[in-house]
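With this grant's support, we have settled on a layout for protein records. A representative record follows, to show the layout.
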Amino acid sequence: MSFELINTVNQAQKKSNVVDVHSGDTVRVHQKIKEGAKERIQIFEGVVVRTDRKNSHTSRITVRKIASGVGVEKGFMIHSPLVEKIEVVRRSKVRRNFLSYLRKRSGKSARLKNQNFDRESINDVRDLEAEAEEHRLKEQAKIDAAEKQAAKDKEEAKLTALQAEVEARHTKS
C-alpha cells in the first residue's frame, strides 16, 4: 500500500514531456533561480557528460562547461520544477554513457564528432504548465511594476501638493 502511494506521488511529480538527451549532446538548460523575492531564468550551456536513470522520476544529467578556463560540472534533475526546459544544441557521436575522459582534456582533444540530427523535432517538447507558469511570472512582474509606479506617482503627487501648499504660504506672508 505505501509503495503504491509513493509511486503515485512520484509519477505525479514527473513531467509529461522531456527532451531525449544523450551523453555527448551539447545542451542549453534553462533553470529557475530565486534571489530573495525575485525569480529569474539562468541558462547553463555545456556538454552532457552523464545521464542517469532515464526512465525514473529521479532521472538526471550532468553538464560540463568551461567557464573562465575552469571546468564546471553541474547536475540537473530533469523532472525538477526548477528546470524550465532543456534544448539540444548539438548532438555528438560517443560510445559511452559516462564521459569522464573529457575532464583530462582541453582544446582540440576535447572535441566530439558531430552528428546530423533534426534539431526542431527533438526540441519540440512543449510543457504547457511551464509556459503558463512563465506567463504568470511575467504578468506578476508587470503588475508589481505597475503597483510600484502607482505608489511612486502617488508619492510624487503628494510631494507636489505639499510644495504648492508651502509656496502658497510663502506668497501670503
Summary: The CA atoms of residues 105 and 163 lie 69 Å apart.
